[in-house]
Design brief:
Number of helices of chain A: 11
CATH superfamily of the largest domain in chain A: Aspartate/ornithine carbamoyltransferase
Structural class of chain A: alpha/beta
CATH topology of the largest domain in chain A: Rossmann fold
Oligomer: homotrimer
Distance between the termini of chain A: 22 Å
Strand content of chain A: 5-15%
Largest interface: A-B, 28 and 28 residues
CATH architecture of the largest domain in chain A: 3-Layer(aba) Sandwich
Chain lengths: ~325, ~325, ~325
């Protein structure tokens, strides 16, 4: 469903099932869009005359802003729909909202939604000339986050095959973890681990091809890459998580613990960081942290995905015109 | 007041009193701006270097977005004023707000306001080089909505003179109905009907040149065009409207009832649709519905009106320079 | 800290300590950016490819809009960060927010904050290639407001040295007054007065080189320029201010009182005006008022400051490249 008949990227809903060559194409393209801090931003006219609609049913200033910057640097017309004040709040159905927005003339939806099936639903029912980019849907997927993480890893460790990589934290509720595991599997990462307390570990996660650790120290051993997840405030002090203090004591990434990984291991985090909850400030700001590089890569990956999706539309339209 | 001395469009406040040739010019121009779904958007540099201010004192994400898209496709600088958080909420008068915004340098106000006289008031008192486009004021007028409806009708039935057209619903509180009736009269529509329960029918509406029906079945007979209005939630379950169920039973547009109109009648609705309240889903999504075409035409009509108003400013400035 | 090693404007945090030639350069440049009402806006490509982030931690629609217009007229990519809904509200520190936004790639922060040290803090800790423009921080400074006032004064009275200028109102809590006093001192204004009730007069204000008046009539005598301040609603009816009625009786600028100043004195106000609280409507709208000219100058001054700061970055980058 995400790909055109000839295997190009039409939508980007999930990293699951995307062929390895296409994931690599995203990374290669993104690499060209990376602007070094303090250098002139890379600008490109690839989306000139195209209209991108930011549909954020769930609030996320940071992710919305990176998509806005990506769209503007590609010269698109970008509209942020104030969706919480819109007709959907007047009882209009999601489908009616989509039909109406597409009738205004647009080429791409960037969708953030609290429901795990929203992006697929919209991609299934929207007009055929529109591309849908999933900017996070429920517990399901956050594919651009996963790809910016892949890009960051590749910049430090170009060959995925020997790498030992762990994802640490609330695996159970994390769309980021799911999307990363799919991408890492496709890119043939050597070993993928998940580290979490048993209450935050989803049942059957082993079936995704990962090794399960409930002990942080064991899980960190010999790692090349440590991917920390953000602990959501709503999980704290619940049956799933007795106390922040205890969580940090057992799973917080401290300088001490980080020494269990390889000396050149990199530390990642999707942000915003809860200092002293899932990670020690000295680690977050330390020499092994690549957290801010992830943010920079986020704009580049979004530019890559948006330009590839629009390019596949153009080639579709050309075929249609030729036939 | 809406026209320049030589009869060009300076403001667009109401369809009332606009000469037929000017209404037709709006429609002709808009036709050139219509982008077919999936085709490249029509872009034009007609407002390059111009600043358009969206002044939405009343919230309407959908209408605001179509004006924003229209302005961007005409290459204007568009600023959405967050008017609910602005100085007016600090007790500043409307006139002070207007004076201040125009002092920032701008060429056009797009105004939405809950008061019926707001757009005229602003047009009367704003600086002479500024055009005001009414995006809906109280119960008074919504002229761009009326014109997008006229465009949609003309695309299906090019000659207005033989047409039988009905507007159905809360006529009493509808600025859309008022603006449509004025436009249809000017364009010499054959017969204009209004259909509503007596409690939602304004006194003396006959004076506007319409036929009044309180019986839906009678009103629908032999129609070429059925224009449904949105039933506002605040009217429901009041003295004016005993219950939604009863309203739908008597005035809901069902497939059964639509058969009373001509077989090629078109069904229109300004959106967002209340399915099962004023219209059956099967009709809203059916082959006679042109509701989404209305949305597409909405962007084109707004582009037409904005570019005509800016062009009349330019010719005014030239005259002034020459004299 | 605001200046580069060779004395160019890098940040604009406060008017304090900026050399006179640099203040005059701001005024000269701004003069070139002033668009006359009804004339085409001055547009310039000086910030093309640059990203400006509006970081308004404190709400101010008016100031935010003038910065947005200034950035757009300089061809920048401008992003309004919805900072109240952003990660800072999820407990992220200001520094983490800044680090993250700069990692997205940006060249300038426009900062409004309720804390008096926010702009300096951000300028101190942000990446070296980023310029910070203070759009008002706590009670500390509002330098672009001060400079638009200087520009307005200079347009009417080109030589500052003989001028008698008074600032009237809540001096104690006013960042505008502070920034104006610094700028007027640097520009060698002849005499600077502050007029306020004793409860709204800061201790030791004389040390800033101003004459203190608690009697309005005495303070107004022989003035060339009267700068009224806005009385904040939160001050009214407190221990600091017994009643609005009494304040107006003693400190309101009436036509009668204005006669005490020179006949060609100009009246200024940063807006929004509280009519009948600090100023009579007839004065605010009268022939001596230049309040709306201040607004027009506001966009021009912001364009000047933004373009100077970006230019100093470019020359820094060149040097760095050459060395």
């Amino acid at each position: 469903m995400q790909l055109t008949a000839d295997g190009k990227l039409k939508h980007f809903l999930t990293t699951e099932g995307i062929p390895p060559l296409l994931l690599e194409e995203i990374l290669d393209r993104a690499e060209q869009f990376v602007s070094l801090p303090g250098k002139a931003q890379v600008k490109a006219p690839l989306l000139r005359g195209k209209t991108v609609m930011n549909l954020f049913f769930e609030n996320s200033t940071r992710t919305r802003t990176t998509f806005e910057l990506a769209a503007k640097r590609l010269s698109a017309d970008l509209v942020n729909l104030d969706i919480r004040n819109s007709a959907t709040s007047k009882g209009e159905s999601l489908l009616d909202t989509i039909r109406n927005i597409e009738a205004m003339g647009c080429d791409m939806f960037v969708v953030r939604h609290s429901s795990s099936s929203a992006a697929h639903f919209i991609a299934k029912y929207c007009a055929p000339h529109i591309s849908v980019i999933n900017a996070g849907d429920g517990r399901h997927a956050h594919p651009t986050q996963a790809m910016l993480d892949m890009l960051t890893i590749r910049q430090h460790k170009p060959d995925f095959t020997p790498l030992k990589i762990a994802i640490v934290g609330d695996i159970k509720h994390s769309r980021v973890a799911r999307s990363e595991i799919h991408a890492l599997n496709t890119l043939c990462a050597g070993e993928i681990r998940v580290i979490a307390p048993i209450t935050l570990m989803p049942n059957g996660i082993e079936d995704m091809g990962v090794k399960v650790y409930t002990n942080m120290e064991e899980g960190l051993k010999d790692l090349d890459v440590v991917i920390m997840l953000r602990l959501q405030h709503e999980r704290m002090n619940t049956a799933q998580l007795p106390s922040v203090r205890e969580y940090y004591a057992r799973y917080g990434l401290t300088e001490e613990r980080l020494k269990l990984a390889k000396p050149d291991a990199i530390v990642m985090h999707p942000g915003p960081v809860n200092r002293g909850v899932e990670i020690d400030s000295r680690v977050a700001d330390g020499s092994q942290s690549v957290i801010l590089q992830q943010v920079t890569n986020g704009v580049a990956v979004r530019m890559a995905v948006m330009s590839m999706a629009i390019a596949s539309q153009a080639s579709l339209a050309k075929e249609k015109g030729a036939s």
